Amino acid sequence: MTLTRRDVENIALLARLEITEAELPVYVGSLSSILAFVEQLSAAPTADVLPMAHPLEGQSQPLREDRVTESDRHDAYQANAPAVEAGLYLVPKVIE
Amino acid sequence: MSLHASTAAEIGRALAAREYSSVEVTRHFLERIERANPALNAFVTVTAERALADAKRADARIARGEGGPLTGVPLAHKDIFCTDGILTSCGSRMLANFVAPYDATVVAKLDAAGMVLLGKTNMDEFAMGSSNETSHYGPVRNPWDAARVPGGSSGGSAAAVAARIAPVATGTDTGGSIRQPGALTGLTGFKPTYGRVSRYGMIAFASSLDQAGVLAHSAEDAALVLAAMAGHDARDSTSVDVPVPDYAAGLDRPVKGLKIGIIREFFGDGLEAETGAAVRAAIDAFRAEGATVEELSLPNLPLSVPTYYVVAPAECSSNLSRFDGVRFGHRCSDPKDLMDLYRRSRGEGFGAEVKRRIMTGTYVLSAGYYDAYYLKAQKVRSLINEDFRRAFATVDVLMGPTAPTPAFAIGAKTDDPILMYLNDIYTIGANLAGLPAVSVPCGLSGGLPVGLQVIGPHFAEERLLAVAHAWQRATDWHRRIPEAYA
Question: Which of B316, B331, B358, B377 minimizes the number of CB atoms within 10 Å of its CB?
């Protein structure tokens, strides 16, 4: 599998990553070689094999009582935000 | 014996016997960190004040007769574990300003055991790497040879323990990130069964593979720390509700009659000769002690690395989508719109290897490629799991090398991702199948440590620790200290 510059630009857009002009050819090369490397999986006989969902058998999703267990830590969590105002997260204007 | 040459268990016993105080022990290690860390780069953050406060509290607890085996013993946490009020960077520029607002369960549990927090250790960015060269904070040096890598991603934890600037440290293992650095620095690196230890507050890389564990001097140390950190946690729905045995109490189980399987696929091309010889000699020694040894084939195991490099990047691309420049972490300056904010914050905040994995994952999950890559890999993962299940129907443990070579030179593999990925060729299988595994030092190659890997069935932690302990009673490889740090 060989990717083009356009492919990598598209993947970077989907992944919400800005890739510089200088980085682009490096990723075209390394992502192509990774995809070529994982290509060997296609030869594995998996016709009747189910995809693995969990390493442990017989696990079920645990349930707990439906009650509030978290305290309000709004301020502590927002202390790490790059920009807040009146308890809200600030981002560039989305709607004109 | 000098204080820093002692194991964590020995320090705990000496504290309980009041031979010295936790404050004295803590000062000793803080001084060693101050001297050695500028060259090693093992710590991102040293929490000296916090450590001395912890130590005073531990001394009071011991004086009241309420101490446990680890009370007052210092430790270091890999910087992937959230620590309340302390920088938690995950080795990334993205989180270089992130002060965690809560403790990971592992951190809270070891704190409750009375352990003393020395600081947070360097690591490959978001635990993605096998050499500790992808860290935003620069590479970590191997205490055995400063020109070489300590392995990764828990390289800072490994270097700190190997250099005896911390008695024990936590790590995480998604594809070998505890065992491989353990092997490359001469330590006991223990990765428990998937779900044995809570992942709450442990920054996620690949959630179906990630598991917390220990980098220690001995199986006894690993047993004590693991017992303190394991257990069900309502805050992690994948943590299993299975009682935690007293691991230390089971250490003396004999290895006579143990059925050992040697994984044939682990002794092929790519295994360095001296490494292979040291591992074979160790297995022969178990045979001499009354274990039976048979060679087994796990035919799908060679597909572990390609399987991992579909599954892990897929999960990583999903997990790391939370870093959006809005709620926490790095934000670019002057974003012109929301898309620009996302793309530049992430483009600037993540390093090259993390971006490579996010893009690999994005690609294999994208429309039209999901079946060919992700679904296929999850099916091959079933085949690998089945190989292990079949093997454990006839043997108690599997043995082989931990890593194909001893520690390599810094910079030697940074230009070729595939070459770097193949460092984990023997460790990834246990992650894909969720199995517990341990690396124990078993010899030297060119003066550098070699690790013997022991893999067990799910929840066979006690058996693995007993096997490792038996080995360490008969040998002194785990007691070797790199000359510069003796």
Answer: B331
B102 SS3 class = coil
DSSP codes, B182-223: HHHHT-EEEE--TTSB--TTB--S-TTT--EEEEESSHHHHH
E strand or H helix at B364: helix B352-365
Q: Rg of chain B's alpha carbons, rounded to an integer?
A: 21
B101–chain A Cβ distance below 8 A for any pair? yes
Q: How far is B162 from chain A (nearest CA, A)?
A: 32
Band of residue A57 on the pLDDT scale cut at 50, 70, 90 = confident
Which tokens belong to B296?
A: 């087994």
Q: What is the pLDDT of residues B355-381, one digit of tens each?
A: 999 999 999 999 899 999 999 999 999
Q: Is residue B1's pLDDT more than 60?
A: no
Contact B324 A16 (CB under 8 A): yes
Using one digit for the tens of pLDDT, what is the confidence trace for B278-316? 999 999 999 999 999 999 999 999 999 999 999 999 999
- DSSP one-letter string for A23-79: THHHHHHHHHHHHHHHGGGGGS--TTPPPP--SSTT-------SS------HHHHHT
Q: Which helix (H) or strand (E) holds B440?
A: strand B437-445
Cα–Cα distances (Å) from B144 to B391, B438, B444, in that order, read 36, 21, 11
Classify residue B409 by its DSSP letter: B
Judge whether residue B85 has pLDDT over 70.
yes
Nearest residue on chain B to A75, alpha-carbon basis: B101
Place of tokens 């599998």: A1
Distance of CA B47 to the CA centre of its chain: 21
Locate A25 and state its tokens. 């050819």
Tokens of B228: 């303190």
Mean pLDDT of A80-95: 93
**Strand, coil or helix: B226:** helix
Are A17 and B343 contacting, i.e. CB atoms less than 8 angstroms apart?
yes
Determine contact, residues B247/B226, Cβ cutoff 8 Å.
yes
Asked if B396 and B455 touch (Cβ cutoff 8 Å), the reply is no
Predicted pLDDT of residue B206: 97
Q: How far apart are CA B302 and CA B300, in angstroms?
A: 6
Helix axes B219-229, B8-16, angle to 10 degrees: 70
The answer to which of A46-60, B342-356, B418-432 has the lowest mean pLDDT is A46-60
Distance to chain B for A91, nearest Cα, Å:
7
> How much is the ipTM here?
0.96
Residue B454, beta-bridge partner list: B399, B438
